[in-house]
Design the sequence.
């Protein structure tokens, strides 16, 4: 067990060590400074923009940004619907998988466009290779969309008054080409050399030693898995996601996949510090997020190592921990760690089945998505956190009787209203969705894989995962039907675009305001005290909103064990 | 909207070609240099090809048995059981697995049965078991195969894969490798 804990510590520490220089690189890319990769990418991107008919230097205000973002996302969604529904006859379908139904294609296409990847299908039988390749494209550009939105905020928080905030297409594309692509090539190569398939030849079969014939699904897995993690998408190539031995063959690949899903969100925090020359602010944000992450993560690891008390009562050796839904090569500690990392960040890939995790571990996984503020997905992590900063600035400003200011800009009624709408939308979608599903047991109860409190948790988890744009699931839920495909589809759209538009609007409004230099009277927003204030705001909002629902699910289940 | 739609479509086409054709093409090229040219690791024994990393059903007493699987080791449709920890039906199933194990391994103490041998993996394709889970099966296999227990224990030792760099992660034994070696004993 000791080596399992060392493994977890090593992958977390290594990620943070890598994230600081990576953040410096990200800041350089967005600031347009020289980097080593310029000779390759500058001509390449210029060609993209010439063929796309886009003037990359034309700057946009925040509204133009959002219109451009929504338009191109809509194009991706329609194209996704078309490919998924027609994959049966389109080329690159060696396994002969059928086209998706309209409702499933609706859910799948939205889910990948918004960087969530709920996956109400199983990768082996639900999509063709052509669809997998298209989803891989969405892995890149949906992450790029989130990062572009975050950079709008970087630009808006500079010490000047402006409404020109860069070009959306340019920011989106350089996020993909200069940040995600080089990293994806490195990660995919490591994965391919560790036995992950990368082939287009379709399903193979083997005769086992006991004489059964079984099919073995392969495919272009390595390229897919690399960007699935780097882009914090999380949609797996196989049904079992990164628990599948071909999608995560050994402990090294497990570490690499874990580090690659954390590196961009962490890097973006440090990039903010380098970009705005406010490193202390970046460390404050990183500190708050890390405290929150560890509070969720450490107990979960302990519960998973201890194992299921109901099985322990049977008197067997519990040395390996809670092994239902877990893989031997990964072990319970690294599975517990992953389950929180993937829910805190909006990845949603899994290396163990969350449905079979201990009751309170399941609660922590849900809380990670309900707070939706620690680390977060590619770009959107910063956006979500900005909302909590604004709330904390306003509340502490009122408490000490000073004008609420952030980065030298006054926070006024309009910004507060937007922040409140975004902050309250999240619990509204989760709780209203779950309440609705619970109100129609004649439709939804047949979809549950477990009775009692745990069945309720399955529904709560599904809406939480949709609203956090996470994509993991209590996968026992039979979710490929009209109810789940359509309701979660709408939750996905609202919970992606409003939390992007809201923070970008706030940033856009702040950017137009006069810059007030810091003085002795300014409330410092990069101090540890202010960090604790943010943590308190996050804790209060989540605890008040979600505690009642959690008592009906995981907490009740815990006490029944 | 109007000024954006045409550039959006054109940029989508260009980036689509780049990220879903050229990028995977490049990785495919890299994979040609990898072990088994990107087809997944395989081992060939007695003219039959097996995927090293894909678990297969081993339920016969003469083989090292592996973990239960929610999909009967169907490598064309991976999945876990997704049973919740308090599900009474599930707990009864675990109990039944323990009883079955004790019928086949009558001299193993209840407290020595490792939990992974009675719980299903996440993928349903777990190729490994812990060294402990292999060692509890030694007596049964020695009796069925009529070989010395020491020989089998040595086999487990030589097939145990240490944690990564000796420091990170659990130790494990690949069940397929172990059973192939058992056949040669």
Sequence:
């Amino acid at each position: 067990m000791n080596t399992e804990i060392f493994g977890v510590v090593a992958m977390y520490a290594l990620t943070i060590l890598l994230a600081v220089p990576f953040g410096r690189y990200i800041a350089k890319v967005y600031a347009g400074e020289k980097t080593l990769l310029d000779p390759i990418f500058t001509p390449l991107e210029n060609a993209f923009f010439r063929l796309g008919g886009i003037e990359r230097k034309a700057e946009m205000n925040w509204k133009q940004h959002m219109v451009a973002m929504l338009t191109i996302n809509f194009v991706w969604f329609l194209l996704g619907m078309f490919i998924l529904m027609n994959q049966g006859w389109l080329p690159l379908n060696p396994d002969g998988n059928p086209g998706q139904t309209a409702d499933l294609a609706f859910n799948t296409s939205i889910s990948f466009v918004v960087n969530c990847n709920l996956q109400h299908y199983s990768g082996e039988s639900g999509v063709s290779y052509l669809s997998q390749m298209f989803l891989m494209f969405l892995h890149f550009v949906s992450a790029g969309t989130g990062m572009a939105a975050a950079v709008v905020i970087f630009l808006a928080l500079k010490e000047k008054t402006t409404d020109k905030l860069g070009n959306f297409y340019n920011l989106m594309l350089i996020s993909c080409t200069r940040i995600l692509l080089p990293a994806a090539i490195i990660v995919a190569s490591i994965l391919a050399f560790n036995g992950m398939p990368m082939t287009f030849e379709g399903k193979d079969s083997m005769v086992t030693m006991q004489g059964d014939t079984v099919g073995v699904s392969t495919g272009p897995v390595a390229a897919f898995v690399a960007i699935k993690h780097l882009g914090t998408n999380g949609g797996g190539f196989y049904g079992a996601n990164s628990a599948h031995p071909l999608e995560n063959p050994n402990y090294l690949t497990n570490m690499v996949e874990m580090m690659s899903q954390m590196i961009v969100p962490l890097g973006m925090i440090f990039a903010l510090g380098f970009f705005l020359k406010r490193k202390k602010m970046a460390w404050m944000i990183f500190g708050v997020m890390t405290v929150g992450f560890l509070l969720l993560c450490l107990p979960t690891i302990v519960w998973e190592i201890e194992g299921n008390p109901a099985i322990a009562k049977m008197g067997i050796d519990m040395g390996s921990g809670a092994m239902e839904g877990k893989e031997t090569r990964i072990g319970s500690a690294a599975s517990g760690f992953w389950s929180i990392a993937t829910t805190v960040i909006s990845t949603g890939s899994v290396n163990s089945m969350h449905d079979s995790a201990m009751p309170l571990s399941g609660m922590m996984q849900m809380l990670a998505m309900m707070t939706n503020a620690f680390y977060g997905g590619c770009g959107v992590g910063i956006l979500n956190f900005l909302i909590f900063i604004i709330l904390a600035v306003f509340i502490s400003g009122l408490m000490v009787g000073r004008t609420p200011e952030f980065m030298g800009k006054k926070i006024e009624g309009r910004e507060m209203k937007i922040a409140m709408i975004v902050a309250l939308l999240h619990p509204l979608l989760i709780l209203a969705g779950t309440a609705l599903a619970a109100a129609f047991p004649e439709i939804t109860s047949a979809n549950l894989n477990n009775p009692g409190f745990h069945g309720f948790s399955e529904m709560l988890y599904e809406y939480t995962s949709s609203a956090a744009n996470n994509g993991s699931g209590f996968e026992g839920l039979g979710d490929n039907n009209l109810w789940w495909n359509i309701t979660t589809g709408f939750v996905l759209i609202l919970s992606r675009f409003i939390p992007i538009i809201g923070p970008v609007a706030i940033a856009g409004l702040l950017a137009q305001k006069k810059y007030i230099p810091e003085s002795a009277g300014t409330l410092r927003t990069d101090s540890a005290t202010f960090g604790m204030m943010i943590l308190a705001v996050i804790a209060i909002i989540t605890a008040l909103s979600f505690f009642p629902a959690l008592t009906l699910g995981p907490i009740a289940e815990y006490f029944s064990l | 909207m109007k000024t954006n739609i045409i550039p959006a479509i054109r940029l989508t086409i260009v980036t689509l070609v780049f990220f879903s054709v050229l990028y995977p093409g490049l990785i495919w090229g890299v994979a040609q240099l990898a072990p088994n040219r990107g087809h997944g690791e395989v081992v060939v024994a007695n003219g039959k090809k097996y995927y090293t990393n894909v678990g297969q059903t081993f339920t016969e007493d003469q083989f090292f048995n592996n973990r239960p699987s929610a999909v009967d080791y169907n490598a064309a449709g991976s999945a876990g059981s997704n049973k919740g920890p308090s599900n009474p039906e599930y707990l009864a199933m675990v109990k039944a697995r323990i009883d079955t194990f004790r019928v086949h391994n009558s001299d193993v103490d209840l407290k020595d049965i490792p939990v992974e041998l009675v719980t299903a993996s996440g993928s349903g394709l777990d190729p490994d078991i812990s060294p402990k889970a292999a060692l509890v099966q030694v007596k049964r296999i020695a009796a069925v195969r009529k070989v010395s227990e020491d020989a089998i224990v040595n086999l487990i030792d030589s097939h145990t894969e240490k944690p990564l760099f000796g420091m990170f992660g659990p130790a494990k034994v690949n069940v397929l490798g172990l059973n192939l070696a058992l056949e040669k004993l």
Notes: Strands of chain A lie at 204-207, 213-216, 405-406, 409-410. The two ends of chain A are 25 Å apart (CA to CA). Chain A is about 65% helix and 0% strand.
